[in-house]
Amino acid sequence: RWVLSLECKGSRNFMSALRRAVEVDFKDKDKHKSQGLYLLTTGIPDQETHTISAYVAEACSGLDLQLHVCLLSVTEGTDSSGIIPACYATPRETASAFKEIVQAASGRFHWFGEAGIFESDDITSIISEMEKAKNYSQKCAFLVESLKQRS
């Protein structure tokens, strides 16, 4: 419920927010087996991707901490809802940057917009599992059929 009362505000100073979350807000981090940070964003951070990736890799290596990113691509020029359009990078460049950052943090990346889901690590994983199950099923059916023919 508290999420519904939040308002969009802030800056693109990703490193400042990440440092606060990792170094200040994780006071009881030793009491938890694993933790995750979820970044909900509409645009590219204002720092270099390789700098953020290096910090994230180092910060997450000592903890069982993962950074997950949900990137929302808004229609170009949208500002009526207070969402700042990403003006420094294309949606594809923004997604690529966050995918690199997420990989450094062993997290998951999700990219969606008004048209639906563009990319999601979870959906990719589910599709992969379904393909494995289909292949296994086909192998089992082939094995059963070959055993029937021998009998």
Give the low-pLDDT segments.
Answer: none
Q: Classify the secondary structure makeup into a structural class.
A: alpha/beta
Query: How many individual helices?
Result: 4
Radius of gyration in whole Å, from Cα? 21 Å
The largest pleated sheet is described as: 4 strands, mixed
Number of domains: 1
Share of helix among residues? 40-55%
Broad shape: elongated
Order of helices and strands: HEHEHEEH
Q: Please report which band the strand proportion falls in: under 5%, 5-15%, 15-25%, 25-35%, 35-45% or over 45%.
A: 15-25%
Secondary structure: number of strands: 4
Report strand order across the widest sheet. 1-2-3-4
Would you tell me the overall average pLDDT? 81
Distance between the ends: 63 Å
Protein name: VWA3A protein
Short précis:
This is VWA3A protein. This protein is an alpha/beta fold and 151 residues long.
How is this structure best described in words?
The chain has helices at 14-24, 49-61, 91-104, 121-150; strands at 35-41, 65-73, 109-113, 116-120. It is of the alpha/beta class. The chain has one domain (2-121). A 4-stranded mixed sheet has the order 1-2-3-4. The radius of gyration is 21 Å and the shape is elongated. The mean pLDDT is 81.
List keywords for this structure.
151 residues, alpha/beta, four-stranded mixed beta sheet, 4 helices, 45% helix
How does the SSE layout of this entry go?
Layout: H1 14-24, E1 35-41, H2 49-61, E2 65-73, H3 91-104, E3 109-113, E4 116-120, H4 121-150
Parallel strand pairs: 1-2, 2-3
Antiparallel strand pairs: 3-4
Helix pairs in contact: 2-3
